[in-house]
## 1
Amino acid sequence: MGIKTPPFKEYEKWTTSRFFSFIRSSLRRSFTRWPPKYEAVERAKRLKPKGNVGRHRFEYQCSECKKYYARKEVEVDHIVPAGSLKSFEDLGGVAERLFVSADKLRLLCKSCHYKVTHHE
Ligand SMILES: [Zn+2]
């Protein structure tokens, strides 16, 4: 988990970093139900070409490599990263960058998502 941060003042059994990762994961969970996220997914979706149907009817295009994947192989990416959440001062900015319109979101396959995230 990295460097141990001081206890969180309102609940000293938790460190400050544990508290902020708790808040961050709550925001992330809310993001999964954010309507523009579904719009971004819909935009990248197409009906599978015939002869290649299998279990699922649709496939999704990665914005980077342009290849098509099953839904579980693509992830929604923020073009502008939400950034780190380490203090209450970060909270407004993180929420603002997280809950953005569909045009600021894109679908990436897992391998492109990994590359993009570890490049930042
Ligand atoms: Zn890709």
## 2
Amino acid sequence: MTITEPGVTSEENRVVDLVEDLLTSFPPDKTEAKVFLGEQFDRGLAWVHFPEGFGGLEASPKLQKLIQERIYAAGGPNPYYRNPIGYGMCGPTVVVWGSEAQKQRYLRPLFTGEEVWCQLFSEPGSGSDFAGLSSKGIRDGDEWIVNGQKVWTTLAHVARWGLLVVRTDPDVPKHAGLTAFVVDMQGPGVETRPLRQMTGEAEFNEVYFTDTRVPDSERLGNPGDGWRVSLTTLMNERVSIGGAIAPKGSGPIGEAVKVWSSLPADRQDPSTKDELMKLWIEAEVNRLTNIRASQNRKVGVPGPEGSTGKLAFAESNKRIYDFAVNLMGADGMLYSTYQMNRPEIAMSSDSIQKAFLRSRANSIEGGTSEVMRNILGERVLGLPGDVRVDREVAWNEVPRN
Ligand SMILES: Cc1cc2nc3c(=O)[nH]c(=O)nc-3n(C[C@H](O)[C@H](O)[C@H](O)COP(=O)(O)OP(=O)(O)OC[C@H]3O[C@@H](n4cnc5c(N)ncnc54)[C@H](O)[C@@H]3O)c2cc1C
């Protein structure tokens, strides 16, 4: 169905035709999710800005929103839901830094959710200062031997593959001595232990590597490129967490409005209504800012605008759920169960109370709000940089405990 409105490009029409053909040939209500997603990938509609043959059409990334809206409207599956780290961050990293063989091997099952991915960056001593990490990789012929501990690894317990960054050269400054790999999460020498959150669940884990052998062919980029590889992941992570464009009035603010609407009339007082309206306006401003950022994004790798969206999303989400739980009064303290479980899906929520508890993590995961403000201050506003005493010093000469 060709759209003839002014401003609609031939690229847009081509994509719309491809989506319609996909939906006609594989009606979502009669097609298994992984089959549908496989067909979406093969038609270049998975990440539309990726190269042809690898889930894309080398088209403008802003067309992805159009594709997903049409697919969701027809009841099609969401690739993010089952494999959020894979779809939002690891896929975009593999396509930029992977070899042809890695792209062929990994992207399709990642997109269909048949192979879940996790991100092995943070360590007990290196979260915000991720470049200071100390897990080691030592070259041994065609392999690397990895030792060390990662932490907060979301979905590691169900992951088939992990995006791993380790220190391969301790004699150079911290950013220069890192190398990235794809690691087999089910291979020998990889141990995954649950870490429990205040929701009661363990979405994330500690992961221990003990003499784990990683083939050199699983390296992403050159030895020493690990920091640059990670930036691709982290920039995509911020957009993935903070850049989602939900319909107007939906998402957390929609839930807060529902709680408000269910209150008895004598509790819908003007001052809480005023607070609700302020939050609604804040959520709408964030949504419109994300739309503007996505329209301006010409190439695949997002810039510091991702940090703006991530910061705004995290702080606004926390305020909204705080407000909603307060509105609920004593009911806000009712919680279904703190029974420990290791969910297959991250960030799921079946109640306002759980969403409130989970939202506290929003300003930590994917980079803390303080670090987002540093990025905005330095890279957008041009303010003086953070104090960095270890930048030019060889990593193994930096004092640490
Ligand atoms: C729910 C959740 C899921 C996660 N999933 C993953 C995952 O899958 N993979 C992964 O690798 N990691 C994951 N993380 C880890 C996350 O990226 C880190 O927690 C985060 O980067 C902060 O690091 P940290 O916890 O070590 O805190 P720290 O870096 O120790 O920070 C402690 C405090 O100091 C502040 N601070 C630190 N440096 C500065 C600075 N320069 N200026 C101002 N303030 C500063 C921070 O803002 C924070 O308040 C996850 C975290 C959470 C909460």
